[in-house]
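During the reporting period the student researcher (J.K.) took over the structure-prediction task from the postdoctoral fellow and processed the backlog of single-chain submissions. One of the processed entries is reproduced below for the supervisory committee.
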Amino acid sequence: MTIFAIITALGASLFLLMAGYLSGLRVGTQERERLRGEVGRLAIVTQQRDAPPQSEADGLRSTIQEMLAPLVERERVSLDLAQFNISVGERRDLSRLLDTIATVGHFKTVLLSNEEGLPLAANRGTRNAERLAASLTRLALVVDQTAGAEGHSPVSILLRDASDATTLCRIFRVRGQRLFFTAQSNDLRLTSTDLDPALAKVEAALSTNDVAISA
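J.K. obtained the following structure tokens:
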């Protein structure tokens, strides 16, 4: 009986120890899960605290878009000038072609003239084409004088007057004759290369057109 009592007591003690261990293990697991959840919650709170408010993020995005808008618009205009197709009528009538260029490029004036100061064609909105063409002959002298030692002359000249009107002149040659392709705009974003996409259209029209390009 004594041995049986001892064995029973040992079994009971072992059972209690195992029960306590399992209970402690369960409690430890629950505590770890609780702590893991708490750490996750704190991480989310920290990210939300460090992140800029939605209104501030929207304001920053809007500011960036406003800063890039002029560049995007000029790129769009350059792409439109490069991609529009020349109709048969525009090949035969340079004035119609310059009308299209003025519309697509948002130019107030588009003029084609020769180095003798004679206007060859202009868009319908051009005023004082003769005076502008004549003034370009003086510009030709400046171009010749600014040629570098290797004989490289400017091919594009950009001017801005006191009223912020911008004049862009692209100089090129057709059949040995120097010509001036000029556009005027109130857009201060105009750059010295903005007429280049349209120049190919003008050269194509001149190559198949019987219009005289000299006096």
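The committee noted the following: The chain has a mean pLDDT of 76.
J.K. will present the remaining backlog at the next meeting.
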